[in-house]
Design brief:
glycosidase, hydrolase, 2 domains, EC 3.2.1.49, 6-stranded parallel β-sheet
Length: about 450
């Protein structure tokens, strides 16, 4: 990666120093939008456009001007630009294969990042040093160390950073939080997070890289490997790509790029569970895998075959928390969260809020302002708009990096525990695994040469 194009900490600090002590933030934060005019439409760009990338780009178009797009797949890059013109009646955005071309622009206030997980930390950190606020899809990180680094850069640069755990902006989950805060189930004792399972893959052979895809750039920080795919095409959400591959959509099933259902859906439902418990009041102290199955054979924490999915396909993990509340993370049952307290229990997911405490809302509704109190202000179901409001106030949004990382550390620890098939003890104050050097080695990873995060 050419150093001259790399936004970094040195350049950021030089910018701040040159501007004087009063200019704490880089140049784009001084734009009229953020500083003075609540009616000014901010200028956004999207990096990573497939599936959720298009979803959040559409959400942003409600209140922003999206002027640039970046993706390493020329097919999805061109198709997304056309959709913006034809379906959303907007001016055709500028398009780039290399996201750094977006970061170099002074007219962009914020970036939306929806790349595969292994790219999140690098792009987000470089964007902050380039003076951009950030919306980054969940799960935010591939490792615990990346989360700590992102927190450091958010604090150093003063950027506003929204994580894409958009269930924090959805009605059912806000009602659930208000019910817990209002004592509707008494003292919380147990939280069960259902994430759903998935099927292991057959052997996936080496295949030709699809035309238009820059495979080396897609891999980026991850190790250099061959592209793999079977010919069957996926239907529905994520359609138009191979059902089994180590790339589009299926990247979630390989530890080199993601963390399986544990981090993909855990970033939603473990987040809601931990939010209900109260992330400021508690922390994990031990993670114990009780029953699980990996997608392939493992040795010393690493997959033996390289030709198939390698994350956990089914699992049940027990998480002991410092205040005595127990959390269970399971692939069984419906996707959602079951909260159990001393006075009752209820289940919540995007389409359901069920149980007697929920039924009682008909005769005993939540008090006025309860949702706003949970949300920290006026509620918007558009998670991107919550970022925009936070950009105006320069306060962190509903899904801030600190609460997200505290929750996601549980998911990362659960994956490490399953890879090694043993319980892990956690020091929440130091954010370290206790007495297990081998497990601790999985808390970070080395980026491939040429794709390092320059600090």
């Amino acid at each position: 990666m050419p150093r001259s194009r790399q936004p970094n900490r040195r350049r950021f600090l030089q910018t701040v120093s040159a501007a004087g002590a009063a200019a704490v933030l880089p140049a784009s934060s001084d734009r009229i939008f953020a500083a003075d005019s609540p009616n000014e439409r901010p200028v956004f760009a999207s990096i990573g456009l497939r599936n959720q990338g298009w979803v959040i780009t559409q959400s942003a178009l409600e209140a922003t001007d999206v002027v640039a797009l970046a993706d390493v797949d020329a097919n999805i890059l061109g198709a997304t630009a056309e959709k913006m013109v034809n379906e959303k009646n907007t001016k055709r955005p500028d398009t780039y294969k290399d996201y750094r071309s977006i970061l170099e622009r002074d007219d962009i206030d914020a970036v939306l990042i929806a790349t595969p997980d292994h790219w999140h930390a690098k792009i987000a950190i470089e964007a902050m040093y380039a003076g951009k606020d950030v919306y980054c899809e969940k799960p935010l990180t591939l490792t615990i160390a990346e989360g700590k680094l992102i927190e450091k850069v958010v604090k150093e640069t003063g950027r506003v950073f929204q994580v894409g755990t958009m269930k924090r902006s959805q009605d059912n989950f806000l009602k659930a939080m208000a019910m817990i805060r209002g004592g509707r189930i008494g003292d919380l004792k147990r939280v069960t997070c259902g994430l759903k399972d998935f099927q292991p893959s057959p052997s996936i052979p080496v295949a030709d890289v699809p035309k238009g895809l820059d495979w080396d750039f897609w891999l980026g920080p991850a190790p250099k490997v061959d592209y793999r795919a079977l010919p069957e095409v996926r239907e529905g959400y994520g359609g138009g790509v191979p059902f089994h591959s180590n790339c589009h959509y299926s990247f979630r099933n390989w530890f080199a790029y993601s963390g399986g259902k544990m981090t993909d859906w855990g970033a939603h439902f473990v987040d809601i569970g931990f939010w209900g418990i109260g992330e400021k009041q508690t922390a994990p102290i031990e993670v114990t895998p009780q029953d699980f199955k990996m997608g392939c054979e493992y040795k010393d924490g690493y997959p033996v075959p390289q030709d198939r999915y390698n994350v956990a396909t089914t699992f049940e993990v027990k998480v002991d928390l410092a205040d005595g509340v127990e959390m269970i993370i399971t692939s069984e049952g419906d996707g959602g969260v079951l909260f159990e307290g001393t006075k009752g229990r209820f289940f919540v997911n995007r389409g359901k809020l069920a149980g007697k405490p929920a039924e009682d809302l008909a005769s005993n509704p939540l008090p006025d302002g309860a949702i706003e109190e949970v949300y920290g202000g006026p509620h918007t179901p558009n998670h991107v708009v919550n970022l925009i409001n936070s950009m105006r106030s320069r306060e962190q949004p509903i899904s801030d990096v600190w609460s997200h990382n505290q929750m996601l550390e549980i998911c990362h620890l659960s994956n490490i525990a399953m890879r090694l098939n043993r319980s892990l003890k956690w020091d929440p104050s130091k954010r370290e695994i206790i007495g297990d050097d081998q497990a601790s080695s999985f808390m970070s990873r080395e980026n491939r040469k040429g794709f390092e995060i320059e600090m």
